[in-house]
Specification:
The complex is a heterodimer. Helix content of chain A is 0%, strand content 53%. By secondary structure, chain A is an all-beta fold. In chain A, the strands form two sheets. In chain A, strands 2, 4, 5, 6, 9, 10 and 11 form a seven-stranded mixed beta sheet that branches. Chain A starts with a strand and ends with a strand. In chain B, a hairpin with a 4-residue loop joins β7 and β8. Classes of the chains: A mainly beta, B mainly beta.
């Protein structure tokens, strides 16, 4: 158990809908990262937050957004969902943005029908 | 353009023998490398890491070797155990942390 929690574990929804994925980092970790794992793309970095502020952005679609709250939990919002958004979404945390080791949650499996 | 590559999608070894997983990278700005292990239906688990200023790091049965001139790293598992069967991901980061760039993974199967 990495100490990173993610909810829900599974999510099934329809095209065009909007969903919110939630992540709580390990105790004491200030930085949160979101990754997407799809069959053909592997693990891809989406976005990073540190202490409530956006720190780095990867190949995140404009339909996707995230935020980190004062209690350091983070939410990833996915809207206007398409079939191709079906994937595993992982959250990771680290003590600080300069700390290389990231600890991953169990993931949320999103299925868009 | 894939900056981190794991060219072997799968590897099968006998219990007790050595497992060697390989990883190549193209970006010379990477300064930190990590290996993660992933079981089905779980998130990646951090295994071992190495800074670019070192060429070897050891932790129990796991050793990571880094060859900067060849832009190549490898993970050695000795002795291999059936519980080591999982997908292993190589990852790289640059510029003092931040996003990790992952390879495609190698599925290791350790047979009793």
């Amino acid at each position: 158990d990495s100490g990173v929690t993610q909810t829900p574990k599974h999510l099934i929804t329809a095209t065009g809908q909007r969903v919110t994925l939630r992540c709580s980092p390990r105790s004491g970790d200030l930085s949160v990262y979101w990754y997407q794992q799809s069959l053909d793309q592997g693990l891809q970095f989406l976005i990073q937050y540190y202490n409530g502020e956006e720190r780095a952005k990867g190949n995140i679609l404009e339909r996707f957004s995230a935020q980190q709250f004062p209690d350091l939990h983070s939410e990833l919002n996915l809207s206007s969902l398409e079939l191709g958004d079906s994937a595993l979404y992982f959250c990771a945390s680290s003590h600080s943005p300069g700390y290389n080791e990231q600890f991953f949650g169990p993931g949320t499996r999103l299925t868009v029908l | 353009d894939q900056q981190v590559k794991q060219n072997s999608p799968s590897l099968s070894v006998q219990e007790g023998r050595i497992s060697i997983l390989n990883c190549d990278y193209t970006n010379s700005m990477f300064d930190y490398f990590l290996w993660y292990k992933k079981y089905p239906a779980e998130g990646p688990t951090f295994l071992i890491s190495i800074s670019s200023i070192k060429d070897k790091n050891e932790d129990g049965r796991f050793t990571v070797f880094l060859n900067k001139s060849a832009k190549h790293l490898s993970l050695h598992i000795v002795p291999s155990q059936p519980g080591d069967s999982a997908v292993y991901f190589c990852a790289a980061s640059g510029n003092q942390g931040g996003k990790l760039i992952f390879g495609q993974g190698t599925e290791l199967s350790v047979k009793p």
